[in-house]
Fold this sequence. Notes:
The complex is a heterodimer. Chain A is of the alpha/beta class. Chain A has helices at 2-29, 33-52, 54-60, 80-96, 111-119, 134-141, 175-184, 195-209, 221-229, 243-247, 294-308, 311-319, 329-349, and strands at 69-73, 100-104, 126-132, 151-158, 160-166, 190-194, 214-218, 235-239, 252-256, 281-289, 324-327. In chain A, helix 8 links the parallel strand 6 and strand 7 (214-218). In chain B, helix 5 (87-98) packs antiparallel against helix 14 (294-310), helix 12 packs antiparallel against helix 13 and helix 12 (247-261) packs parallel to helix 14 (294-310). A two-stranded antiparallel ribbon of chain B has the order 1-2. Chain B is an all-alpha fold. Chain B is globular.
Amino acid sequence: MKKFLRTTTALGLAAVVAAGCGDEAADEQTEGETDDAGDAEETDEGVDDVDDEDDEAEEDGSSYPEQDIDIIVPYSAGGGGDTVARILTDHLGDELDASFNVINQEGAGGEVGIQAMADADPDGYTLGVFGYPDNVVLENTVDTDFEYDSFEYLGAFDDVPHSLFVGPDSDFEDPDELVEYAEENPGEITVGESGALGLLKVLAFNDEADIEMSPINYDGGGELVNDLLGGHIDVASTSITSYDEITAEGGEPLGYAAEERIDMFDDVPTFEEQGYDLDLGVSRVLVAPDGIPEEVEAELSEALDAIGESEELQQAFEDANLPYRYLDNDEVDDVLEDRNENLQPIIEENADDF
Amino acid sequence: MDALEIFLGILSLDVFFIVFAGVLVGIFVGAIPGLNGAIGISLLLPLTFALEPQNGILLLGGIYMGGMYGGSITAILLNVPGDVVAAPAAMEGYPLTKQGRSKEALYYSIFSSMFGGFIGVVILILFTPPLAALALEFGPAEMFFISLSGLVVIGALTGSNIYKSLFAALFGLFIGMIGVSSVTATERFTLNMPQLREGIEVVPVVLGLFCLAEMFLNIGKKANETVQYEDQSIKRITVLRNIFKRKFLVLKSGVIGTCIGLLPGVGTTLAVFMSYGEAKRTSKKPEMFEKGNPEGIMASEAANNATVGSSMVPLLALGVPGSPTTAIIAGALIIHGIILGPDLFNTRPDVAYTFLFGMLLTVAAMAIIGAIGIKYFSYILKVNIMYIVPVVLVFALFGAYSLRNSMFDVLVAILIGVLGVVFKKIDVPLAPIIIGLVLGPLIETNLVRSMDIAEARQQPILQFMLSSPLSIGLLIMLVLMIIVVVRLRQRTG
């Protein structure tokens, strides 16, 4: 018995130490957590009053949020989409005086997590962050249960154009030289790509320049950059945000697929100005499952506007090497629907390659 | 900011606190079956946003280092490795525990981890640029040969019956095939289930085979039936002296760990089993392996902690993360506006050097916490197994769930756990299953990638795959390994 006591004490101590570390984490992460709890109680009382007077609730808008909000991210921790979600919840949490939980639900190129967002209760307590157009590519290429309209698009925060890079000892200095070589040697140029958008970019460039380059599939950006820099592939199709790591080792971008130059990369030419009509990139969006209550949507939009137009959020994105572009609840629908029309034909023409 | 200032900055109280806290958390999450360093790092990621960037990255580095060691504690004491990298520790350490030599095994584990971790970090500090250049040389062809040689290691692992090992390896390769082939986009064995499209993750399989199966087998056993001998105490100095006698083994394992740890994807798992196989090859008593040979513990533990340093080489030198854990660390730094890569040493030398030298501190912290903690860790053996089983089961299932918040992974773990019981009963070795599962997809994608590139360049596949001196060297190594493994099997009968 004595031994058992000693053991349990040891284990208990261990647990306390472990829990202590955990608590610390929680404490520092959201210093206002206890305050939040207090506020939540207040709002609970508020809700009771409001039940009788619905109008007042909207005016004072205090009924949402009254519990923690889950944010589903369909990618693993540490990637670009995850970074956006964490920056966003950090600022949105302060603005709404609420706690957010980021839940990474990766799998099947984002399908698993995006599906979970679509299936979630539209009560405003489960939201999601993903990189548009992952959802569109998925719904057009695999048999998904969600579609573009399964989501209420609340806002978009960045605009990361896709780019083509060449390695350190490349003979190609601009897209024309690449195209010229590819015309003479169809299929010989190898283009590493990862993710749905990576492949889409290769196919779209092939179509636009009427050439044939061979896409080589990679599971992740790390291996892709490694093989480009090591000279194992000729070109890498990846986001312009890989600029620093690739150029530091002597690689060069040939251009990026945006309508006009973006501030963060204003010394790199777009494909557009070099005569190739390509506009393709990722834009991280905050979504709710379709059918959330109007007042919740209004509350979220208002909070998003407040942080979205602030310089702090812009700074946080730029520090994280993400080109910031805020689109509010109204703008985001127009922009994304425009993009859909651009994407649809490329995806359909190349459906066999997915 | 000059070097002295940075160095003094490291010797401050908050850095010590952060390092110890990180290592402690790492050891705990590593020791708890189902959790590992990567999960610990994801859990504490938000905390780092509030810290200074160099402290944040050190906290995560500490968890990484501690987590790599922690898995061995439960591996040795309960035959439940917290992670794949601790599997050899279970294979050698648990038999020692059964002989009443658990403390000895634990000391071998912590001191070898310390030496391995030290070798890895020192190499990180001294040789980052040339090693990063070496890592770039590994293209699809080179990765194919090195992954294939990992499969050959299976032959060296298990003595009793080559057909059972072969079956285990093939079973692992089979699990690895499930999912949508990234190359042909064909669905393989997915049974129309969207969850199976991405394939089966390694973590639930490890948990099922190593944790759940062992716990299922323990159900119904009488208290402490497994450990028949009274636990002996041993002096630390005796263990250190024994390790010193095998210093070349530890050094070699540390270097193998460092070199293989550079490679993305395969890194840690391959490094651990390669060093283990190499230890068996050079051992004077290869027949004692899997019956409790400390050499196996020394080699695998030195190797897995050595990979911590080297998996950060591509991250620091090129900005390319080499493992899931380092990818999360990179993400944490990006939020602070710190972009990893060669520029880091110019733009933020404070962060770069604090991190490099701080990693040495994590090795020290791990050794101190481990060496002091062993007395307390081994109390686990005195706990009635009927209390351990439910606790481990809960943690293992929680770990399977937390990987990607998926109930499906929990079901996979349970199913594989039941299979694991069957395998254990009929003596099918478990380690080859994991090796097959980890390496199968790598072998396939790199072969197909090589074929795609060769086709694009209109070269015969063999000409492409043997077009670099490195790949020829790796092929020669592969052939030599096959010869060595065949000889080893003849020697051990």
